[in-house]
Amino acid sequence: MNSASVAHFLRIIGITDFPVYGLAHAGPLHTLSMTWYSSTDDVIYISDRNSPGFDLRKSWDVLRYMAFLIRLEDHALELQRRYNKVQAAFLEKIRKEVVNKNDGADSESSLLWTASDQADKFKIYYPEKGAKGVEGVEESKAQASASAKSRD
Q: 97 and 67, same structural domain?
């Protein structure tokens, strides 16, 4: 799940078709997974079947695992290179969508992820906003109350 979040984050900042590696473990047994956002298919892929595994109780597997970690340095350098290419556009996106909130325009912001921001975007009731939220919140609150009562 964390790898999917990272792949989605990389997509938001403008880095696509770049694999992210994950590591699942149970005690000394570790298994790699690879996740990436495909710009061609517009979907996040997670590959965890038939992935390399390491039993860290065995010296050979410890060496294989260390070799994998050493190779990640090149991968990290490629990520840095790709980030440097998109950094200016990403910072501009932050300025527009978060700092200025698109100057009041109807935003399809991919950067406003909080529950409060989502409540504003979809005009739903959010307890911390109460009656001070956006238009339509009171109607949404009434619908939520009616729905809860109907389940009782």
A: yes
Question: Are 118 and 97 in the same domain?
Answer: no
What integer pLDDT is reported at residue 143 of this predicted model?
59
The number of distinct structural domains making up the chain is 2
Question: Same structural domain for residues 83 and 38?
Answer: yes
What's 17's DSSP letter?
S
Which pLDDT score, from 0 to 100, does residue 63 have? 95
Question: Do residue 30 and residue 74 come from a single domain?
Answer: yes
Q: Are 22 and 33 in contact (CB under 8 A)?
A: yes
Interior CA angle at 75 toward 11 and 15, to 5°? 15
The model's pTM is 0.64
* Residue 75, both tokens: 């991968």
C-beta separation of 119 from 125 below 8 A: yes
Helix axes of 59-94 and 2-13: crossing angle, nearest 10 degrees: 40
pLDDT single digits (tens) 118-132: 677 777 776 765 544
Q: Is 128 left (phi over 0), alpha (psi -120 to 50) or beta?
A: alpha
